[in-house]
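Hi everyone, sorry if this is the wrong subforum. Our group has a chain we'd like a structural model of before ordering constructs, and none of us has done structure prediction before. Sequence below.
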Amino acid sequence: MPEVRHWIIAYAAPPDGTDTHIPPLPALQRWLARAVPHASYDGDPWSLTPPHEHALARALGWSIEDGRLPWAAWHAGRAGVACAWLWPCAWQAGLDHITLIPPQALDLRPDEAVALKAAFSPYAAEDGIALDDDGSPGRWLAEGDLFDGWTGASLDRVAHRRADVWWRDAGSQPSARTLLRLLNEAQMLFHDHPVNAARVARGALPINGLWISGAGRWRGDGPRPAEASVQLIDALVEPATRGDALGWAAGWQALEPELANWMAAADADGQPRWLTLCGERGWRTWRLDPGADPAPRPRRGWRDWWQRLRGRPATPAAAVLDWWSGL
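Answer:
Right subforum, don't worry. Here is the predicted structure as tokens:
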């Protein structure tokens, strides 16, 4: 397996409105002081593909279509096969909308996921969909031609948010009617399943729905997962999408020692590294060359660079950091 030379950190910026909880991040500050801007992407907070998935697809050499990146097939190494991820979720009904709670926030136990998948598999098979384990109880690998060309929002876009707005244009797709019917069948099946009775008894939310993402047919282009020298860091996704500022800050502090070690490895092996920090709208990449000295630039705080990730105006002192502008 090649050494990782490119980190992509999802939701590097803090949750909106939680800037008072930004922790000291000396390793990140040293990286930004020594590195040089390398590339950037100014996107849309309503894109179906979030910036970190866009950055990863670019690093892998893929052509990028919004909402049509075949992550499930790529992770499974199934070139030429239409696949998708099915995520067991909790759909919470409000007065006028439904909020989706992702499996990462649900304490979904492996035996529960296995039981729910076994119950749903015969229904999926009737529509030509085969379900398989994906190495995580939080998602299932689904294989079937219905996912060929499916356009949909990443789970990271819809997690802890109003779900219906992310189904836009889904109804116009050829397989939409079949897939939506199948999701409704899953909802009814899970409603009275013993797994949910046990979950409710222990105070957990019931699993009452599924979300489709990562769908499509991977052509086999670019490196396979075990061959890629780029790594997506997703430790901040759950607290950020939940709006948990303290959890987000703790996640960043846990990453700090790893970032410091990774930076030291660049000096030790004489090879460059790339760091991509992503927000809701876009991403910025810096390149660190081994032995590089800090550039002579004004001292800037953490707030200045993350404010640009959030699309907020920079402070006057941060105006020179124009590679963050507009994010």
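For your construct planning: Residues 71-217 form one domain. The two ends are 34 Å apart (CA to CA).
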